[in-house]
């Protein structure tokens, strides 16, 4: 039997009715995004627009072309092995070095350790020249845990940083990798 090419991946969006005793909880103004039964889970603003990309999931504050910010999430399942020594920090440094935008400032790399995951993130400031030159930020996160690797980017205008930084904080606070959901209608999760 021939293998299906990865570029032909088909995402399936399914909406289920939650049971009255469900355990899903998110802060006010947020909804929970779950990919692949729990390979990646995080909170996103409740009213943001969702767009399915070929290899990622994209959330924006408004429908394009009127959007002012974009949060994009992708992930890979990794083969079972000890990934604790994988050089996340140097991998993120390389991603930043290879960025082709007009970067004017780079932030420090911040490491977050969770019980089952390690997360690194940083930000760059750049000049967006698509229309009139305008300062923008891009926050980039790489997470690794439970044989799942994720990449999250968040791009927004510099003059909106004060109102959008709390959204990034909630995304990182809620980021969970590899906690698989056996019954999505109740939210019960057990490690596979």
Largest sheet: 8 strands, antiparallel
- Helix/strand-derived category reads mainly beta
Q: What is Rg?
A: 17 Å
Continuous helix count: 2
Please provide the count of β strands: 13
| Regions with little confidence, pLDDT below 50 for 5+ residues | 1-7
- The backbone outline, from C-alpha atoms, is globular
SSE succession: EEEEEHEEEEEHEEE
Helical amount = 10-25%
Beta content: 35-45%
Distance between the termini: 28 Å
Question: SSE layout and pairings?
Answer:
Elements: E1 30-35, E2 40-45, E3 49-52, E4 57-60, E5 69-77, H1 88-97, E6 102-106, E7 110-113, E8 117-128, E9 134-145, E10 148-157, H2 161-174, E11 176-177, E12 181-183, E13 188-189
Antiparallel strand pairs: 1-2, 2-11, 3-4, 4-5, 5-10, 6-8, 7-8, 8-9, 9-10, 12-13
Description:
Strands 3, 4, 5, 6, 7, 8, 9 and 10 form an eight-stranded antiparallel beta sheet that branches. A three-stranded antiparallel beta sheet has the order 1-2-11. 24% of the residues are buried. It is mainly beta. The protein has helices spanning 88-97, 161-174, and strands at residues 30-35, 40-45, 49-52, 57-60, 69-77, 102-106, 110-113, 117-128, 134-145, 148-157, 176-177, 181-183, 188-189. β12 (181-183) and β13 form a beta hairpin. It is built from two helices and 13 strands, in the order βββββαβββββαβββ.
Describe this structure in a few short sentences:
The protein has 2 helices and 13 strands; from the N terminus they run βββββαβββββαβββ. It has 192 residues and is mainly beta.
């Amino acid at each position: 039997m021939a293998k299906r090419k990865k570029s032909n991946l088909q995402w399936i969006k399914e909406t289920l009715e939650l049971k009255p005793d469900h355990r899903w909880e998110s802060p006010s103004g947020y909804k929970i995004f779950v990919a692949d039964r729990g390979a990646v889970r995080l909170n996103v603003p409740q009213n943001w627009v969702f767009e399915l990309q070929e290899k990622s999931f994209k959330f924006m504050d408004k429908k394009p072309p009127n959007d002012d910010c974009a949060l994009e999430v992708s992930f890979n399942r990794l083969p079972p092995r000890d990934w604790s020594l994988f050089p996340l920090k140097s991998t993120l440094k390389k991603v930043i070095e290879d960025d082709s935008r007009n970067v004017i400032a780079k932030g420090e790399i911040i490491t977050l350790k969770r019980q089952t995951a390690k997360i690194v993130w940083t930000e760059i400031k750049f000049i967006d020249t698509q229309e009139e030159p305008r300062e923008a930020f891009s926050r980039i996160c790489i997470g690794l845990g439970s044989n799942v690797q994720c990449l999250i980017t968040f791009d927004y205008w510099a003059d909106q940083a004060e109102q959008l930084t709390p959204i990034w904080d909630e995304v990182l606070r809620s980021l969970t990798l590899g906690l698989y959901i056996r019954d999505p209608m109740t939210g019960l999760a057990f490690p596979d």
